[in-house]
Amino acid sequence: MMSGLREMRDQMRTVDLIVETRDARIPLSSINKQFEQVIKGKRRVVVYNKCDLAPTSIQPVVRKVMESRNQRTLFTDTNINKSVKQILDVARETAKSDPMRYPQLVVMVIGMPNVGKSSLINALRRTGLNRGKAANTGAKPGVTRSVSGRIRVLDSPAVYLVDTPGVMIPHIPDPITAIKVALTGGIKDNIADDTVLADYLLFRLNRLDHTDYSAVLGISQRTDDISEFLQLLGTKIGALRRGGELDTDKTIQFFLRAFRQGRFGQLCLDELDEPSVTTFFKNNMEDAPLSKNQAQKAKRAAQRQRSLEKARSKNLI
Questions:
Q1: Can you tell me the mean pLDDT for 270-291?
Q2: What pTM was computed for the model?
Q3: Could you tell me where the DSSP H helices lie in 98-218?
Q4: DSSP secondary structure string for all residues of 252-307
Q5: What percent of the chain has pLDDT over 90?
Q6: Whole-angstrom distance, CA of residue 263 vs CA of residue 251
Q7: CA dist 293 to 288, 289, 298, 299, 300, Å?
Q8: Whether the bond into 113 is cis, omega within 30 of 0
């Protein structure tokens, strides 16, 4: 995580525009506050990707919240060229605003793991140049391991993208926020407690009137009891071991995969009423006191950055 931030920081001098990618299903929980110091002073557009999996009704609410924090906001579906073109329009607008300053525009794409950064880069290349895949993609977090080389996405004006590894917050203080990030694939399944994820997802689905998950999954009834639910679902999909014992892991993975594939319709896991938004930013975006170890690491990182900037100022690197 720290190496990813360090690589981003080292590249920042050559970057003209930041595209911060977030997940539209968790518009608050997919914010990484550690980006704020790294990209300070840079032009930024916030892109809520996977908007096809979230209700369109949240878009004006999220846009209002983010614009109150001086963050220009777009919503994208990487399968639709018109949607992706919004980002190219911002890049083109930036480049044309000062052609002398931007003979070529360099855009860095950043975000938490599994928010769709690499898919977005491929969609931008497809839309801007009518060319194929340039960045590796995958359903699991952590596909991009290091800051990649520049990828051309527009010819006139010349616009290049830089992909970056997904950078996870080292510690998410709110356990519910951590569950939401894990549900959308931002935390590897072997790290998160799958039973807790399934229980929380069932809780959220039971609160929704427009989604009949029992019909989607083909089970006989809705229930608030996770054990009963898993038995119903496991029996339906045949996730049973010898003797009829439930294969809990297989059943949970089927349930989580159904959510991630959008089978339950368009869902937003974050509460977006004003008190909830205020509480989120208070609990998750304000800096907690550093431990002694964290403070030492931060001091060393600052020293490295100062040395790097001093060397650059003397054209040594």
A1: 79
A2: 0.82
A3: 117-129, 175-183, 194-206, 213-217
A4: HHHHHHHHHTTTT-S---S--SHHHHHHHHHHHSSPPPPPHHHHHHHHHHHHHHHH
A5: 61
A6: 16
A7: 14, 12, 9, 10, 11
A8: no
